[in-house]
Design a protein that fits this description.
single chain, 346 residues, alpha+beta, Jelly Rolls, six-stranded mixed sheet, 20 strands, elongated, PP2-like, F-box domain-containing protein
Length: 346
Amino acid sequence: MRFSGEGVMSANWKKYAWSMLSLSRRNEWVGTAPLSFSNEDLRDMFPHEKIYCVPMDSLEPFDGVLVLDFQIQSPENMDSLPEDCVSKILSYTSPPDACRFSMVSSTMRSAADSDLLWQSFFPSDYRHILSRALYPHTLDSSSYKHLFYSLCHPLLLDGGNMSFKLDKCSGKKSYILSARQLSITWSSDPLYWCWRTVPESRFKEVAELRMVSWLEIRGKIRTRVLTANTWYAVYLIMKISHREYGLDRVACEVSVAVGEKVQSGRVYLCEKDEKKGKKERVLNMEEEVIGVATRRDDGWMEIKMGEFLSGHNEEEVTMSLMEVSYPLKGGLIVEGIEVRPQYHHS
């Protein structure tokens, strides 16, 4: 959407118009329809302004988003706009943008804090998600705005076996599947794996590898519980204990599959010899880039397993990590697998 003024515009209207123009530069919505309004929509939104709509054949690409030009001849006082009209416009933006708009005028402040606006930033199934919360009393539900930002912090679901949160910039959903929700080969045999509690984990239990030759970890999630038309990245959340052995000898195979589309690669869970790892990656340049673990803000390590596009179709996403060639390995601590929005698709 591009605003251009006709005649003299007030300072507030200029600030408002250019702010709205900047919002059209947002292109995180993969595959969604462009932000556009019909003549009737515009008249409802701006009942006191003179509207000039440019013909549809003037649509042009603008930073990956189609832009429709129209002009508004504005009154001096922007506060004449109805609050619900402003809330409707702001619902096409993002939570951070809505907070910025609250500083433009008193009408914008009221609209930017309204339940009507903030409810529009929630996923359609948010009530079902809240019904699965382990500790719902920890949420601030005094307003939809407060509830939104409460959900931007991890919320345990399904008896504490899954973590959920909203992205504070986009409202998109992310999940962490606990180790208990994963399929880990031999995890029920205490000779190979042990389940224990660690204070730094968000879950009640984590899985620690004692000794195994066949390392295989699998997880799955349905696309219907994710945000549609969004690129997601999949990460194994893990740590390496001081009793580690065999994990640095060979790279693990990782894959993420949605329907018939499969993305695969190789990763090192542990690299003691950095030069050795770099050398092996050079020798295997024809294969996928070999990933390594990186440190998270919560103190754990994560390693990327792959990424996928969550479309509108109902599909199952399967993720796997496997290493079966080296005889014995141990010392891997698995907290879970995270599926979160990926804004810089590689």
